[in-house]
């Protein structure tokens, strides 16, 4: 991992903790549990991916994290966005590969929205 990539990952990690510290839930009684969830999820995912050395997989994880931050802030929901498998069931052929393709397309659409949206969207 290059030093620029390392700095980007550490900056993203700190950004997630700053978001968690200032997080306000739509339901006030859930604020503390959602803050704990954000911190635990970040720690788990960053630790899980700390052994990555391939630049493309690191970039993919960075993009996924930025997308989850954008979605979480926009919808005020810290939990991952569910992916609909409605059109997979129409084919009566559910496979992990099909699910991954739909998940990838969903993330691409979110990234497209996130990077093309003005700052007023968030």
TrEMBL record:
Keywords for this entry? Answer: Membrane, Transmembrane, Transmembrane helix
Q: Which GO terms describe its cellular component?
A: mitochondrion
According to the entry, every stretch annotated as the Complex 1 LYR protein domain falls at 8-67
Q: Which InterPro entries match?
A: Complex1_LYR_dom, Complex1_LYR_LYRM1, LYRM1
Ranges annotated as spanning the membrane? 96-115
Which family is this sequence assigned to?
Belongs to the complex I LYR family.
Q: What is this protein called?
A: LYR motif containing 1
The root-end lineage is: Eukaryota, Metazoa, Chordata, Craniata, Vertebrata
